[in-house]
Amino acid sequence: xxxxxxxxxxxxRLAKLRSIDCxxxxxxxxxxxxxxLLVLPATANLDTTDIPVTTPITEMxxxxxxxxxxxxxxxxxxxxxxxxxxxxxxxxxxxHYGVARNExxxxxxxxxxxxxxxxxxxxxxxxxxxxxxxxxxxAALTGLKESGAKHLHFVCLVASPEGIQxxxxxxxxxxxxxxxxxxxxxxxxxxxxxxxxxxDRIFGTL
Length: 206
Known about the structure:
By secondary structure, the protein is of the alpha/beta class. The chain has one domain (about 10-45, about 65-205): Rossmann fold (3-Layer(aba) Sandwich), CATH 3.40.50.2020. The chain is built from six helices and twelve strands. The protein has helices spanning about 10-20, 25-45, 80-90, 135-145, 160-170, 200-205; strands at about 50-55, 60-65, 70-75, 95, 95-100, 110-115, 125, 130, 150-160, 175-180, 185, 190. Strands 3, 4, 5, 6, 7, 8, 9 and 10 form an eight-stranded mixed beta sheet that branches. Strands 1-2 form a two-stranded antiparallel ribbon. β9 (about 150-160), α5 (about 160-170) and β10 (about 175-180) form a beta-alpha-beta unit. α1 (about 10-20) packs antiparallel against α2. The chain is globular. The two termini are about 30 Å apart.
C-alpha cells in the first residue's frame, strides 16, 4: 500500500497536524492539503476505457474513467477529507456512512448510512482520517458490500499496523492508501504518535 510519509510535502503537513498547538482552522487546511496529495495514488489503478478525441491538431484515442465514482466519508471526521477529494473529482457523488466508536468496548456502532442503489457499478472510495483499530473501517466496508459495492478503496491520513492487519483479514480485496503508517495503538485504542481525535480537531470540539 502507498505510504507517502517520506514525501517532503506530506511530511511537512503531517508534522504540523501532529502538533498539539495546531488550531482547528490550520488543522483543517493541512488535512485538506494531504487529502489532495492522496487523490493520485488512491485513483492510480482505476479502470479506464478508450474514447475518441479530436484535438485542435488531429484525431486520437484518449482514456476516461470506466465507472462512476462515489465518495463515502465515514462520519464525521471523514468530512474533513471528502471536500478535498471532491475538488479534484467533481464528477463524483458523495454518500455518507455514520460509524461511531464505543469508547468502552472500542467496537464500531453504525448509526447512519445513505448511498445510491447502483453501488455495484461505481468506484467507491471510503474516506476516514484515521485507521486505528480498523473496526469502523471494516464495518463500513462490510455495510457497503452488503449494499452492492464491488469496487472499493479505503483512504486515510494515518494508519496503525493493527488497523491495516484487520483490513487485510476482513477485506483483503480492498486496497488501502495512507499518508503515513504509525507505530501502533495505545491502551485506549488511539494511534501513537497519531493526531489525537481527528474529528474533534477538525471541528474544534475538543
